[in-house]
Structures are given as C-alpha cells and as structure tokens.
Specification:
Elements: H1 3-14, H2 20-27, H3 31-43, E1 63-71, H4 76-85, E2 89-94, E3 101-107, H5 110-119, E4 127-135, H6 145-151
Antiparallel strand pairs: 1-3, 1-4, 2-3
Helix pairs in contact: 1-6, 2-3
C-alpha cells in the first residue's frame, strides 16, 4: 500500500458512505482511478466490507459482556462451529493465557445474560469453565486501524 491507499482506507474507515467523488477529491485522484484503488483494496482483503455501526442499547441489548471460556482438548472444532451459529455471540477469539477463547456477547438484561450463560453458553461443546466480565460503560468502541498501520 502506498500513501494514497493509506489515505483512502483512513477516509473510508471514518465514513464508509463517502461518495467516490469526495473520496477522489480528498486523495487527489479522479473518480475512476480512485474507484480502481478501492476495488483493489477490496480484492486484496484490506477492505473487508462496508457495514452500518449499530447501537446495541437502541436495539434493546443493554448488557455487553466478555466471556473467557476453557474447553476440553478435543472439542475445538465442535465448539467453534457452535459459536459461529449462536446469535448472541458476536465475536469469538482464540487466546493465549488461562482460557482458550474470548467471546463477546450482548443480552437484553442481566436476567437474559444469566439464561444465556446457564442454558446455552455453558452447554456449548466441550465447555469446562467460563468467566464472565460485564461491561459497565464503553469508553472507546473502536480505534483507527488505518492510523495504527501508518504508525508502524
């Protein structure tokens, strides 16, 4: 990626709905070369997609938590497949440390979270133990990957 590509991804990261005309103007290109660069960035996987950022609380999902999960040695494939199908689990990461996975989960209420933990997440394939951390307040929801990558 060159300097212009970095500018393009930084601008798109801030506003994925920016018009190609405005994007091209801000990076100093005409529309067609700018569009070609965006397409190349999509094809190479630098731009993974365009989505709307939703507010969980506005959707009735007022409880956000992270769950560290330890599973049995031979259950990774089954666990990962089940996690991918579970609607309340919005993220799943393998981890190094005292647990095997870190899940991000949203729930409507603490009571709803309790139901998810007792009756669903604890019964996922191979789960041996879990530890839940409930988020009280979000201080920073996303940082800029474009800014971070240019600082490296």
């Amino acid at each position: 990626m060159d300097r212009i590509d970095h500018k393009i991804v930084a601008l798109l990261e801030r506003d994925g709905r920016i018009s190609f005309a405005d994007l091209a103007e801000q990076v100093g290109l005409s529309k067609t070369p700018c569009w070609n660069r965006v397409q190349r960035l999509r094809e190479t996987g630098v731009i993974a997609g365009f989505t709307a950022q939703l507010d969980p609380a506005s959707l009735g999902l007022g409880v956000q938590c992270y769950i560290s999960v330890t599973i049995g040695f031979d259950a990774h494939a089954d666990f990962e497949a089940a996690v991918c199908e579970h609607r309340a689990i919005t993220e799943c990461h393998t981890t190094a440390g005292s647990s095997d996975y870190l899940l991000r989960v949203y729930a409507a209420s603490v009571e709803h979270l309790d139901e998810l933990l007792r009756h669903e997440i604890s019964k996922l394939p191979g789960v041996q133990s879990s530890e839940t951390t409930i988020c009280l307040k979000t201080i920073k929801a996303s940082g800029s990957l474009a800014d971070l990558s240019t600082a490296l």
